[in-house]
């Protein structure tokens, strides 16, 4: 699995989990959803993603995006 696929999977999981937490626990979890979305948005333009840096240091293979 490449870095891109892991980043997309983790981001998707964080969004689904935070929306569920917002529904069942507190609406303040939507701030976490917004943070993940904003990070995805800025990485589309800058190519910088903290998770991609961590995965690269762990030796995962990189695809075209990161």
UniProtKB/TrEMBL annotation:
Q: Where are the transmembrane segments?
A: 32-55
Q: Does the keyword Membrane apply?
A: yes
Domain Inner membrane protein YgaP-like transmembrane per the UniProt entry, residue ranges:
2-56
Q: What is the protein name stated in its UniProt record?
A: DUF2892 domain-containing protein
User: Which of UniProt's keywords are assigned here?
Assistant: Membrane, Transmembrane, Transmembrane helix
Q: Pfam families, from UniProt?
A: YgaP-like_TM (PF11127)
**What species is given as this protein's source?**
Thiorhodococcus mannitoliphagus
């Amino acid at each position: 699995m490449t870095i891109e696929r892991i980043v997309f999977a983790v981001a998707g999981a964080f969004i689904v989990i935070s929306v569920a937490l917002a529904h069942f626990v507190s609406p303040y979890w939507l701030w976490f959803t917004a943070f993940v979305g904003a990070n995805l948005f800025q990485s589309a333009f800058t190519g910088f993603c903290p998770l991609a840096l961590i995965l690269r240091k762990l030796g995962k293979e990189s695809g075209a995006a990161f």
